[in-house]
Specification:
The structure holds two protein chains of two kinds.
Chain A lengths: L10 H4 L1 H4 L7 H5 L2 H17 L3 H23 L6
Helix pairs in contact in A: 4-5
Chain B lengths: L17 H16 L3 H14 L4 H13 L3 H14 L4 H14 L2 H16 L6 H16 L3
Helix pairs in contact in B: 1-2, 1-3, 2-3, 3-4, 4-5, 5-6, 5-7, 6-7
Classes of the chains: A mainly alpha, B mainly alpha.
């Protein structure tokens, strides 16, 4: 149940609600997607300039913010993976 | 909801593959775990838009809304996740937790029963689900004492 002495803490003990969330994919694989993510960012920014309605603008803004955070993280990473 | 399963989002000119969605979610979850909630929120909200059928990101949003005290928003996100994956014990337990917090004991009791049944039938392998269920059951049983 809990981690061994000297080992990593049991995530459930630290935050049970967080520990319930499904694991997800692969961060290393995300690093290989830099080019396509930049392309998507350009595409979304172009769409933001084209749309006229508020709802579409909101959706594009949300997607752009997501892509920006991912690309910022990828640019912060020190060289090769761990 | 043992592992994220989703169909490719079919948004014109912005298709995201299943792998991309799962990997972006993974990063969002990492940021939740390290307390970088603003960054995590950008990812979960983005996924809610580009992959509205991806239940884990709705639970991620529910988590963020819960910790910020936006329980109505959390409930909406959880209900969305459960519409996508009605059998998700993780989603049900999120609903139990938030329902208990806002005093909706009836809903909490109903979903505690469903999760308990799933556990008894051997349908749940995730130990965190079982532990969380026991925690919420104790909370439910202790209410008003």
């Amino acid at each position: 149940m809990s981690g061994t002495i000297g080992g990593p803490p049991d995530s459930f003990s630290l935050s049970p609600l967080l520990a319930l969330l499904p694991d997800g994919g692969n961060l290393y694989r995300l690093e290989t997607l830099v080019s396509s993510l930049y392309a998507r960012q350009e595409s979304v920014e172009a769409l933001r300039e084209e749309v006229a309605d508020r709802e579409s603008e909101r959706k594009h803004a949300v997607e752009a913010a997501m892509l920006r955070q991912i690309l910022d993280w990828l640019s912060e990473k020190p060289g090769e993976g761990e | 909801m043992e592992s994220p399963q989703r169909r490719t989002s079919d948004t014109p000119r912005r298709k995201y593959s299943d792998d991309e969605i799962n990997d972006i979610y993974k990063l969002g979850k990492l940021w939740l775990e390290t307390g970088q909630h603003k960054r995590a929120e950008a990812l979960m909200s983005g996924l809610n838009e580009v992959a509205p059928d991806f239940a884990p990101a709705w639970l991620g949003s529910a988590f963020l809304r819960s910790v910020s005290g936006n329980y109505d928003g959390a409930l909406l996100a959880i209900q969305t996740a459960l519409r996508i994956e009605p059998e998700s014990t993780e989603g049900m337990l999120y609903l139990v937790a938030v329902s208990m917090t806002v005093g909706d004991v009836s809903t909490a009791g109903t979903y505690l029963g469903e999760v308990g049944e799933a556990i008894e039938q051997g349908k749940v392998a995730n130990q965190n689900v079982i532990r969380f269920y026991k925690m919420q059951l104790a909370r439910y049983q202790a209410r008003g004492k």
